[in-house]
Amino acid sequence: MTGTNPRVAPDLVRRHAPKLADLTDDVLFADVWERADLSPRDRSLITVAALVALGRDAQLTGHLRRALDNSLSPGELAEAITHLAFYAGWPAAMSATGILAAVTEAAD
Fold first, then answer.
1. What are the residue boundaries of the Carboxymuconolactone decarboxylase-like domain, all occurrences included (predicted)?
2. Do residues 63 and 51 make contact, with C-beta atoms less than 8 angstroms apart?
3. Across residues 7-35, what is the average pLDDT?
4. Which residue ranges does the chain devote to CATH 1.20.1290.10?
5. Is this structure's pTM higher than 0.90?
6. CATH 1.20.1290.10: does it fit domain 38-107?
7. Residue 1: how many other CB atoms lie within 10 Å
8. What is the pLDDT of residues 88-98, one digit of tens each?
9. Could you tell me the end-to-end alpha-carbon distance of the chain, in angstroms, rounded to an integer?
């Protein structure tokens, strides 16, 4: 890692693909996520929607946690997932709902 940016990339990625981990930390989260034209809350909603639509469940857990930290409520996330069922497919929404349930229950 370079500079004083916090590490975001998982240790597994850092061990097996260190450059990917550096790009995740130094470009994606320290630059793209910090740009002023969208709030972190908006970026979280967009990211969650993309991950649900693409069925990227492995990354969804962490981004749902981040979305909650960025002031999205569990109800707002559930509503986004419900809305996406009609555009991204029922199975994607059903899978995402299970992940949202696990994330919010773990947070309680």
1. 18-101
2. yes
3. 93
4. 38-107
5. no
6. yes
7. 16
8. 999 999 999 99
9. 33
